Amino acid sequence: MKILKDHSLQAYNTFGLDAKAKQFAAIKSARTISTFLKGNKEALFILGGGSNMLLTNNIEALVLKNEIKGIEIIREFKNQVHVAVGGGENWHQFVLWAIRKKLGGIENLSLIPGTVGASPIQNIGAYGVELKDVFVKLEAIDLSTGKKKVYFKNDCQFGYRDSIFKKKLKGKVLISKVVFRLSKNPKINVSYGAIQSILKEKKIKKPSIKNVSDAVIQIRSSKLPDPKVLGNAGSFFKNPEISKRKFKNLQQQFPNIVFYDLPSGKVKIPAGWLIEQCGWKGKKIGNTGSHAQQALVIVNYGNATGSEIKAHAERVIESVKNKFNIALTPEVNII
Ligand code: FAD
Ligand code: EPU
To answer: What angle do CA 89, 181, 133 make, to 5 degrees?
Structure first.
């Protein structure tokens, strides 16, 4: 394992922030890292694609960049297969692999940046599908012992943009492999109106998983900035969930409020709407600001520091709190 010192992380985070890692190593196999960890005393930090983090400081640790590869069908059933994927595989490339093999279940999650190993951490989700819907189990390496552990779906405490890996196990394990259940007879999920509109426009009556993936890519490309062009980490905040009583009071004050009723009885409000109502959409302050097409995304216009972006997030939180009495919580990991 080659260890580099004072290594710039600018190319390894989608905000494009120039923080440094005290030490840096790329991990190519679970076995190498297990062996290394048995004698390790350094503080460790796991890096995937850097698409859900805001680096406000240098990382005073050994940064382990997950590059464990491999996609393999490990079990075949009549209607489905189990696929084991190395944690360092690129998520979208895995989605494209599944589409080529005509295996359904993850097409609605097309074009989400980052690695497969990070996908269970916040239970990635988009357009009516969450990772937990196709998750079987994962293998992780305990960072304090180097031993392998297996976590099944019930162990993972999956929730909206949440799992045990963001709570009790945060920073404690490296997810080296994830096993997914994909379908040979995919059920198409076009519950999102925007997907239906595109299919209608293209006169597609019986959509394939490829058609759905293409529609998702089209929608995402129209409103989410490409990190290669404009640094960002996707939605900066989670969509808040509030009680029905609080919602009814808000609705009286703001009759146009956008909302979704949840099975739990709570109500979800799109944070993008709240932020836009506070006047932040498209507003630029110094090197940062809220994106003009999607107010939930905070962008780096070129030379922002992590602290500048964090200060912008704090301004947004404060104004949403003042106007709506709702506390936004960041989805992005602030380091
Ligand atoms: P990183 O940013 O590298 O890491 C995130 C956290 O996980 C860090 O705390 C890191 O230490 C830890 N970590 C990473 N890999 C491992 C591992 N193998 N083992 C243990 N810990 C690990 N997310 C959605 O859910 N839905 C979306 O629609 C969506 N759209 C996005 C659009 C854009 C343009 C961008 C930039 C981001 C978007 N995201 C979305 C967020 C992001 O893509 C996901 O959170 C993704 O899973 C992060 O993967 P990563 O490999 O980049 O993780
Ligand atoms: N809206 C506004 N103004 C805005 C943005 C949104 O008013 O500037 C309102 C609109 O009414 C819109 C609604 O919010 O219809 C929802 O917006 P959108 O469909 O863009 O989705 P979102 O709730 O902002 C969530 C996820 C995304 C995911 C999409 C699609 C969160 C925090 N974000 O965004 O995930 O791709 O739905 O399913 O749940 C991410 O996690 O990084 C991410 C991009």
So the answer is: 95
| Cβ-contact 141, 30 below 8 angstroms | yes
Closest C-alpha to ligand 2, atom 22? 270
**Mean pLDDT of the region 209-233:** 97
| Average pLDDT estimate for 181-188 | 96
Residue 39 has pLDDT above 90, yes or no: no
Active site (annotated) includes residue 331: yes
pLDDT in tens, 88-105: 999 999 999 999 999 999
For ligand 1, whether the C-beta of 227 sits within 6 Å is: yes
Residue 258 has pLDDT above 90, yes or no: yes
52 burial type by CB count under 10 A (0-12 exposed, 13-18 middle, 19+ buried): buried
Atom of ligand 1 nearest to the CA of 232: 36
pLDDT at 219 over 90: yes
161 included as an active-site residue: yes
DSSP result, 209-221:
HHHHHHHHHHHHH
Domains of the chain: residue spans and CATH: 4-66 (3.30.43.10), 71-183 (3.30.465.10), 193-223 (no CATH), 231-334 (3.90.78.10)
Give the nearest ligand 2 atom to 124 CA.
41
Q: Which of 121, 134, 195, 223 to mutate to test the pocket of ligand 1 (most atoms within 8 A of CB)?
A: 121
**What are residue 223's phi and psi, to 5 degrees?**
-125, -20
